[in-house]
Protein: TransmemBrane protein 87B-like
Organism: Trifolium medium
Amino acid sequence: MSGKTIWKNPDGFLPGRMAPFKKFYVFMTLAYVCLGIIWLLQYVRFWDDVLQLQHCISAVIGLGLFEMILWYFEYANFNNTGIRPIVVTTWVVTVGAIRQTIARLLILSVSMGYGVVRPTLGGLTSKEGQGSF
């Protein structure tokens, strides 16, 4: 005897524990779009004062948006066909790893003071007229 069973919910093929993630990724995509618009407006407004680190922050926001869109399409495809798309899943994981790597490198750079502390900050204060203790 041989056979095949197909399990489908009323909403699609997504299991009950995975179904809320589809709405979650729509929400996160909209959140990244709002963050990206606010960031872009401030980025353009203060174009003359942009630091090198802020270019990397823009890349992290863009990659985060791209990752959320890919996650949504991965879940939507799985919900419609019942098969997880290997190519989309591979791209999602790769984009997520790149985004996390850049974000962690940014945290390390800021922690070490690169791009935040300028070497001329120490020379701006005047020590004349101050008594020694």
